[in-house]
Amino acid sequence: MLSITNLTKTYPNGVHALKGVTLTIDTGLFGLLGPNGAGKSTLMRTLATLQEPDAGAIVFDGLDVVAQPEIHRRQLGYLPQDFGVYPGVSAYDLLDHIAVLKGMSEKKARREQVEALLAQTNLTSHRKKAVSSFSGGMRQRFGIAQALLGDPKLIIVDEPTAGLDPEERNRFHNLLSEVSENIVVILSTHIVEDVRQLCPRMAILADGRVLRTDAPRTLVAELEGRVWRKTADRSTVEQYRRSFNVISTQLYEGRTLVHVLNDGQPEQGFEVVEPNLEDVYFSILRAHSSATESLHAA
Amino acid sequence: MLRDVIRFEWRYHTRQIAFPVAVLFFLGMGYLLPAIGYGPTGANLNSPFVVMQSVGLLSLLMIFVLTVFCTNAVSRDAESGMQEIVFATPVGKLRYLTARFAGALLASLATFSACIVGLFVSPMVARMDPARVGATIPVAYLWALLVMAVPNILVAAAVIFAVAILSRSVLASYVGSVFLYMLYMVVGMMIGSPLFAGAKPLGQAALVRAAILDPFGISAFFQQTWYWTPAQRNSELLALSGYFLLNRVVVLVVALGILTVTYQRFSFRVAAHSVKRMLDLTDAAPSHTTAYQRVVVAAPSWRSHWTALRVATEREFRATATSKPFLALMALWVCVALIDITDNTVWEYHTLAYPTTRMMLADIQTTLPVLGALMLVYFAAEVVWRERIVRADEIIDATPTPSGVFYLAKGSALVLLTWLMTILPIVLAIGYQLATGYTNVHPLAYLSLFYFVGLPLVLLTVVIVLVQTLTPNRWLGVLLAMILALAILSPDELGLRHGMLRFAKPPVAPYTEMNGFVGAGSFAWYMVFWFSLAGLLAAVTLGIWRRGRAQSLLTRIRALPHRLGKAGLIGAAGSLALFAATGGIIFHDTNIAHRFETESQSLAWRASYERSYRRFDSMPLPAIVAAKATVNLYPSERRYAITGSYSLENRTTKAIDTVIVSQPRDVPASLLELTGARVVRHDDVSDTYIFALEQPMAPGARSELRFSVRSPQRHVVADGFDYDVVANGSYVTRAAAFPRLGYVRGYEVDDASERRARGLAPPRVGPGPIEDALAGRDRHESWMTLDATIVTDEDQTALAPGDLVREWKDNGRHYFHFVTPKPTTPVFGFVSARYAVRRVTHAGVNVEVHYDPAHAYNVDRMIAAATRTLDVLGSKFGPYPSSSLRIVELPAHWGFGAYAMPGVIVWPEDRGFVTRYREGDVDLVTKRLAHEVSHQWWGHTLYPAQVEGGVTLVETMAKYSELLVMEAIQGKASLPAMLRYERELYVMSRANMPFPEPTLLRAYDYDFVYYAKGAIVMEALRDLIGEEALNRALRTLLEEHGGEGKRPATTLDVEAALHAVSTPEQQQLIDEWFGKVTLYDLRIESASMEARPENQSRVTLTIRARKSLEPGGGIKPSEAALDELIDVAVYAENPLSSTAPALWSGKYRLRTGENRITIDVRGTPAFVSVDPFERRIEVERADNVREVTRRQ
Fold first, then answer.
1. How confident is the model at residue B276 (pLDDT cuts 50, 70, 90)?
2. Do the Cβ atoms of B398 and A78 come within 8 Å?
3. Nearest to A18 by CA among A30, A4, A3
4. What is the pLDDT of residues A228-244, one digit of tens each?
5. Mean pLDDT, to the nearest integer, of B737-752?
6. Residues with Cβ < 8 Å from A263, sequence gap 6 or more?
7. Could you tell me which residues are beta bridge partners of residue A272?
């Protein structure tokens, strides 16, 4: 179990990336959803021991991660948001290399796992080719393969599906859910769909703070019967924005589809819709931003 | 618009931190050069010549700054991910390239201007010898900037920019810059550029070749100024003409050509390799059937760390070693190494030597550290930053491998690269040895490179990795590492003499074939000392090692103790303790157990010695009439002990009541007693004793000085080795170990400005005027007998002047008892080594060659040369004065050519024993041996007065003897080649003198006068008055002044003897050649021929001739009327490239101005030459030969 308490981080340039993040994460896939700049990558890198928090604690299975990063790294699998590789080194060689760095000095065990992971990530036929020549999807699969090397208890994947085509994303999800059975897997993303498909639990992070933590299903249930939809043209959308709690607007065949959060029907023409995770995400973000706005106004 | 883009570039460069660092560095270098007295000794520190030379030197350093600016200008788009954006903008190709290039160039020029400021200001501000600072000539600085620096920077920038932009590889540009530097080095070595040590005299042809090839114009600068006198150097600006102009034009054209090609080949595509090999992915449907298998990782152990270290090191090493830039660097290194290897097999007079391992190693030992350091500076940036450059750092840093493993892996990979660079020249050298049929390969000597060069490179690696860990980006790291590496490689230039201040650069003795290594143990002490410091630096590096997201240096330093942990801190403390402990031991051995003096301490005791004892300089001294000594040599322990005595006799006309005795400062006496006297003063610092005689020594009275001395034993050598006693090849001289009587002039401070600063009179010039000798005031020592017993290791042979009266072994020691049967000149030394010997008896003289068994190559030639010399000189100058002639090999760490003691010639191995004679070469072995053997007449029979011109009587006469013997053995035709070399040596050397050149009559110090000029003058003299008359005069001289008890001769006696055998006209020439600095200028202005019947031709030529005379002592030369017989010859082939004899040669009376000559010859003349046999000294000789045109 991973518990994060009051984590804060301010960068030298003044950016306040984490403003007291507290989270408790159990085994299984955990989705960390948030817009760009929410502090997700800072949190991920902090969990991956690549940077130190200014304050706060991270405890994983009883281990103080901040104080003993070198021990924490032994149980860590990390797929950074964006990574490069040594040029000209083949997938097999590079996995083998990272496996050694992860402490696998047993040659046979290493070879077996590397072969197995190449098979699982469907890279066996490209094992002799340089990773630096891989396409985005292949590279991402290589990324997850290296994160799975050894015996990780905590896997951190930061924006893994950005740039993947739908099929590749699907494959990626399958692999993630397969490995997440007994360990903690944290998936950070700004794509709601990823979380909906994969994560039994999730948190929404914005502006360096955790806005909500719960099971997606519970969050969706909270909105049952409160989300209303209407197709409108552009001028009226502006008007709706002023009058109602518009949680999202979406273009649909050239016209705008407006989602409004309201306890009753806001206006003639609105129809109630089955809420989805996207509605939850946007409503929470919206609530947060209006709260900060009014705070600033006050 | 272009201006805006360039302005942007300018702002970009000047705001990089590298810019102010580089500016400060160049300002500092500019300031430093005059302050440390850079430049030839004769020229002012702010003279146009020195300014030009300094600017040339510093422009070489710009290569490295340019690398940073150019690669930065080119690669910053790709590295910051701006490439696609920039390339997609509508900025045109020309404008893009122009702006980038102009930006880098402007920034570089601005940087370089800083050193001009430094050079300009330094002579006004820094404390320096006022005698070496002339009036400031501002235009000289601008001129140097314009004609030297700007073209150099332009061409270097063009090359590096082109490589950077076409390869898009930072490392490739580094290698491009190293290539430029090497090109300069290669050309510089070709001409023996004064920027390199050991300039060799070479013909104009080589100078001209280098002048054109050297891209930095420095060789062209030297070509133009090669024979400039100090006055010219101080006032004249380099002319933009001749080869210098040609070089500058070529350089600019090449630069423009490179830029044009770059423009044509550059295209706005994202670097091809990042696109072209992107795989086309058509994956089959997900097919994985196996479930994810975890593999439990064992707890970290030494084994897992070791595996990680091995794998990571291998990856780092392989990635660099197989990269194109490294391979290019290695290709370059092969070229340099080959030059290094072959360079040392060529010696004086262009003779060859066998490729002994010593010859192979000598240059490698000095270039490998430099190139290795360069490699480290550039490639460490790549290795240390590798993960960050390819953005693999987050994955790698999140693995549990400790930072220490990464640090060690990167460091080890760099060290392995230096090993690769070490192996390469070894393989080449061994290949060269075997290919030339030489099989005496010494593997251990080669492996020593890993020790003497390899270990310091490891230290440098530690420092450079630390620098790269400290700096926020690798550009700055490269710059700082470069500055640091330069400083570490040149402690002498920084004035660091004490071994403890010379990081990674303890004194290293040269390897010799005879003796192997000296000082490996001393080196080891320093290595422990510096490695313990390196351990501390390594701990710091580890403590601030980058792991994860970039953190500021301050943050990393704060985290240092925590990140090092207890073990790390203990390790650091341990290193510090070891550093302190070895430092203490080295300091004790250097400064406390022995004497270590800084430059100023040394000057201080010398000044105080002079003040205290100069009054004894003119006091009468008793003569040493006999020396008796037991010399105990312990070669394996590198020490000796001597007990002995001098028999003294008052041969003056006055009673002596005080005797001053000096013991060589490093060889303390445990006993020093003068019979009938007591020590009234013992000065510890100069080790001077003053004895007061209880009864003054009356004229003719005798006394005895008894002494017992022993050599010091030191473990650690602070600055330079002494080689008196070594394992094989000891050579202990009287001067090094025995007490001396009288005031030691050699202790006086001789630098004029240092003397002035200490309130001392101006320095002595030379050994005293001839007039001193005429008045009986010269410091001539008496002849003496020697009775010496040398005791050495059982397997060694010991040698000394005199007859070997007894040789025996006792108790594991070998005894040799030598006695001189009659008094000899007071010169002796003792040699001991494991020798093979060859003996012949020739005309009653026992001739022996004692040589290292591995060096038998030239022993037969030596025996032949020695016996022939005995015959030739015996017939011309009188019988050989001794019953034996022993020729003894010494290890090559003795730098002299050879040295003659009475009956014994000591001769370092490189200077004859391993000479490889080829048909057609100058026979160096015979020549040198003839010279040394002749000293038994000139030096040890005729022992001249110790005044000006004394050396002429010894060395010029030996040079003449050399010519006589060479002519007897090789024929007259062999002489011009040798004389040509002497003339070139003379005119080159005289251009580089700090004080005016003396004449032969009053020669001292400048060896090029009494050797090189002397040889030419003697040959001219022989031609002038005839050999018979000349030899008769010299024989008279030997009879009147040779041997004990005769009045010591001076050059005035030579002159008188020569006058006695010559006509008044000849006498005038003799006086000019001996008593003046005489230079001729003979030039054939036209030569034409006309065919005549019966295969006859008539050649008509005009010769312009003049002669200048300089009275010597710096008085300006004046024109003199030339009116003398000079050789003219007519050739069918070019005499400079062919050895075919002349069709005709004869003498013509040439007068100042134009001389028309008509010569009728048989055959078809093609060339004419004036003074073809090199009997007149000219600076410019290219115009002495001319092709004959055919007249219709």
1. very low
2. yes
3. A4
4. 988 888 778 888 888 88
5. 92
6. A226
7. A228
Scan for tokens 């063009």, then name that residue. Answer: B158
C-alpha dihedral sign at B812, B817, B818, B823: positive
- pLDDT, tens digit, 9 for 90 and up, residues B399-447: 999 999 999 999 999 999 999 999 999 999 999 999 988 999 999 999 9
Contact A50 B549 (CB under 8 A): yes
Alpha-helix runs per DSSP H in chain A: 40-47, 69-72, 91-101, 107-120, 136-147, 166-179, 192-198, 216-222, 234-243, 277-297
Residue B964 CA to residue B937 CA, distance in Å, equals: 14
Percentage of residues in chain B with pLDDT exceeding 70? 95
Kindly list the residues from chain B whose CB atom is less than 8 angstroms away from the CB atom of residue A45. 394, 548-549
Chosen for mutation from A10, A100, A111, A180 (greatest number of chain B CBs closer than 10 Å) is: A100
CA distance B71 to B378: 12
Residues of B in contact with A109 (CB under 8 A): 295
Confidence of residue A64 (pLDDT cuts 50, 70, 90): very high
Residues A32 and A27: their CA atoms lie apart, in Å, by 14
ipTM over 0.85: yes
Identity of the residue numbered B866: A
d(CA B424, CA A132): 32
The per-residue DSSP string of B398-453 comes to TSS--HHHHHHHHHHHHHHHHHHHHHHHHHHHHHHHHHTT-----HHHHHHHIIII
d(CA B392, CA B526): 39
Strand B1123-1131 and strand B1167-1170: the pairing is antiparallel
For A75, A181, B113, B119, B179, the CA distances from B18, given in Å and listed in that order, are 41, 52, 16, 22, 22
> Which among B1099, B1081, B1080, B1187 is positioned nearest to B1136, based on CA atoms?
B1187
* Strand, helix or coil for residue B677: strand
> Which member of A84, A86, A134 has the closest CB to residue B319?
A86
Please name the residues in contact with A44: beta carbons below 8 A apart, sequence gap of 6 or more: A32, A78, A80, A81, A156, A158, A186, A188
- What is the number of other CB atoms lying within 10 angstroms of the CB of residue B549? 17
Q: What's the length of chain A? A: 298
**Residues 357-416 in B contacting A (C-alpha not used; CB under 8 Å):** 386, 390-392, 394-402
**Tens digits of residue pLDDT in B299-349:** 888 889 999 999 999 999 999 998 878 887 888 788 788 878 887 787 877
Q: Under an 8 A CB cutoff, do A98 and B395 touch?
A: yes
Q: How confident is the model at residue B129 (pLDDT cuts 50, 70, 90)?
A: confident
**Cα(B215)–Cα(B213) distance, integer angstroms:** 6
- Map tokens 């021991």 to a residue: A49
* DSSP bridge pairs for B792: B814
Q: How far is B532 from chain A (nearest CA, A)?
A: 27
Mark yes or no for CB contact B398/A48 under 8 Å. Answer: yes
Structure tokens at A83: 């990574």
d(CA B245, CA B450): 45
**B119 and B54 in contact (C-beta within 8 Å)?**
yes
Cα separation, B555 vs B560, whole angstroms = 9
Most confident of A270-274, B827-831, B915-919: B827-831
pLDDT of residue B197: 39
Is the model's pLDDT at B189 over the cut of 80? no
State the Cα–Cα distance between residues B1087 and B1089, nearest whole angstrom: 7
pTM: 0.85
Average pLDDT of span B1096-1112: 91
Interface probe with A: pick from B79, B322, B395, most Cβ of A within 10 Å: B395
Q: What is the pLDDT of residue B273?
A: 46
Angstrom CA distances, B782 to B621, B821, B934, B1103, stand at 11, 16, 21, 53
